From TrEMBL, chain A:
UniProt protein name: Sugar ABC transporter ATP-binding protein
Lineage: Bacteria, Pseudomonadati, Pseudomonadota
CDD domains: ABC_MalK_N (cd03301)
Record Pfam families: ABC_tran, OB_MalK, TOBE
Species whose genome carries this gene: Proteobacteria bacterium 228
Classification via InterPro entries: AAA+_ATPase, ABC_transporter-like_ATP-bd, ABC_transporter-like_CS, ABC_transpr_MalK-like, ABC_transpr_MalK/UgpC-like, Mo/tungstate-bd_C_term_dom, NA-bd_OB-fold, OB_MalK-like
Keyword Transport in record: yes
Domain ABC transporter: 4-234
Top-level taxon of the source organism: Bacteria
Keywords: ATP-binding, Nucleotide-binding, Transport
Automatic annotation (TrEMBL), chain B:
Entry GO CC: plasma membrane
Organism the protein comes from: Proteobacteria bacterium 228
Residue span, ABC transmembrane type-1 domain: 84-276
Record's keyword terms, sorted: Membrane, Transmembrane, Transmembrane helix, Transport
Pfam families, per the entry: BPD_transp_1
Protein name in UniProt: Sugar ABC transporter permease
Major localization class: membrane
Organism ancestry: Bacteria, Pseudomonadati, Pseudomonadota
Amino acid sequence: MSALEINKVFKDYGKVRVLKDINISIDSGEFLILVGPSGCGKSTLMNAIAGLDDITAGEIRIGGDDVTHRSPKDRDIAMVFQSYALYPSMSVRENIAFGLEMRKVAKTERDQEVERVAKMLQIEHLLDRKPAQLSGGQRQRVAMGRALARKPKIYLFDEPLSNLDAKLRVEMRTEIKKLHQRLGTTIVYVTHDQIEAMTLADRIAVMKDGVVLQLDSPQNIYDNPVNMFVAGFMGSPAMNFIKAPLVKLDQGYGVSLTNQAGDTYALPVPQAKQGSLDGWLNKEVILGLRPEQITHVMPHRQSEPFCHTLPCRVEVAEPTGADTLIEIFFNGQEVDARIEPRSQAPVGQVMELMLDMSKAVLFNPETQDRLA
Amino acid sequence: MTNTRPVSTGERLARGGIYAILIAAALVYLLPLAVMLLTSVKTLDDIRTGNILSLPVEIVFDAWHKAWSNACTGVSCNGVSGFFWNSFQIVIPAVLISTFVGALNGYALTKWRFKGSELFFALMLFGCFIPFQVVLLPMAQTLGYVGLANTTTGLVFVHVVYGIAFTTLFFRNFYVGIPNELVLAAKLDGAGFFTIFWRILLPVSAPIIVVCIIWQFTQIWNDFLFGVVFSGQDTKPITVALNNLVNTTTGVKEYNVDMAAAIIAALPTLVVYVAAGKYFVRGLTAGAVKG
Ligand SMILES: Nc1ncnc2c1ncn2[C@@H]1O[C@H](COP(=O)(O)OP(=O)(O)OP(=O)(O)O)[C@@H](O)[C@H]1O
Ligand SMILES: [Mg+2]
């Protein structure tokens, strides 16, 4: 059963259309992540789901019921705000119990619930403090506790980790993941952090300018982006976009790449992706190749059908520890490659690189949409 | 203390000059109060023979006693004590009601915005700039219609109406600094309009409540015009009684009694300011509460 259905939702602020025809349906227990650049409408969509803001058109259903015109408290939703929004005059205990109190849960039951949540989040020793006496990470856990004290149909998290330092973020990310696995609740989660998105999500919705560009599993978003925006948004360093002419080969179509030495190579595109390429022969398309698909030569993979080796000159090298990012040029354009540190040739020298074309994607240079 | 740099003579002179100016200014401001205090404890003879700044020959509190309980304020001669309590009966409810309504207005105008709420607030601000005199006649008529003319209730009503513009302004400006997410979170938790006000907003409003109370208390206590126009014979506030006492023309002019009565009239506002003044400054500069 779908836990949340968003059908044809529009939202205008005055003359500005902030949400445009949003359609999302998620199953019970699913973890949906909304990503997108700042101002694309993520918080607006969250507020619409929670009922904190009226929508201009469309329908929102929770657990099958149409809640479009219900007030927030009747939607059975708990939300963690980016700013935590802890009630400053109340102790942690009162903060967590407030929602239960408003729903007329008896005192003894409330106390039990607070204890349970506090234990789960390891904030038992903080229960009698005021929010002002807590650190950022502790506040974050209290905010989470306030949501978890109730058992709503859906949890909404609006960038809950964005105020934390890098280490705490990673810790909390793991905690949230465990929590979701343990409780099996439906969660909609906003983040700017693509690692958070990739690690937590069952599905990711990539938004831009109030439109959902792609709603898919993390792996599919990563491997099969619908356009250049999605492709460039996920992954760090970003996918390489290389302008290259489409050529005809024995096995079908391929793209032509010229290295720094001026030698040109025609690399075939996998058969499965050739469907819509007919009109593009000898025209320029955009080849999308992630840095990890351009590597040092791995002998055991060399025999794979779409792996090709070609010599390239190392222009710049950036060691990151686990691997080294090097910059090379194809068709006169900068391209990042990710190689094993020990295999790197000194800067300015030529080394053999292996290109894995099986995951290459092609885009229309005008519309930036996916071709193949 | 740890500054071991030698202070040059020039600097010393400059500093001395600044202190001299400050002390002189303080003396000028204190002089009227000193004169009032001195005069109020002199006998009438003492006042006549000495000059205005001379110390009393003998300190007597007769004038204070008379001002409090049997000086003539117009026809009656019972001192200002009754009017003193009249003022409290006007000021306390007026301050509490206007502060409360201002808080509610400020809350609604910031956290439950409605179409036109900005315009509503702008119009309300006009209220801060309307001179007292302009509202006298319409207000008198209104009070007559509703049967509150010459009553304490009527006067309280006038002060509340006039004060709401200011209290609303204070609370609105305070509440815009309080994050909206607090209210949204409470809504999701299931709290309604008044629950959110009582449980979330009011508990963090102490600084601005203090500001409002001091401001309103001083304004209403010191008001003369509304008091003289809208009060009845027995409901006059102390400011009006003081005026009547000073202007009573029969007999000799008892400056010591006048001064004592004036000090009595000013005392409550002084006490309020001394007791809560530092919160006043703090409240005016208080920003948003950290969540
Ligand atoms: N109350 C409002 N009135 C007018 N425009 C608004 C209002 N709230 C948001 N907007 C606009 O709607 C758009 C979407 O805002 P929203 O807060 O949903 O962005 P977001 O995706 O959450 O961004 P961020 O990642 O920075 O939080 C923005 O362009 C914003 O300026
Ligand atoms: Mg946002």
